[in-house]
Amino acid sequence: MGKEHIGKSFKSGNSVAIRIPASIGVEAGREWEVERNPDGRIILKEVDTSPTKISLDGIYGSMRGRGLKRLPFEHVERDWSRPTE
Q: Would you say residue 32 lies in a domain?
């Protein structure tokens, strides 16, 4: 295993948090799955929060008479120096 680091637990609201030293390289703001083994070890696994893509292949054309249609595009010039009303 790698080099051992010491973290400290503390109360944070209704939870207990553990500080992870920055030298480990964990990025702030990530989500983690937390598991506690019967032997007392706590295991952290990073959760993949990458956005998922949605496929519309299954519903395309399923709306009778109301399929997807291209909307006309109209380019409108605007003076961005003046606020809108």
A: yes
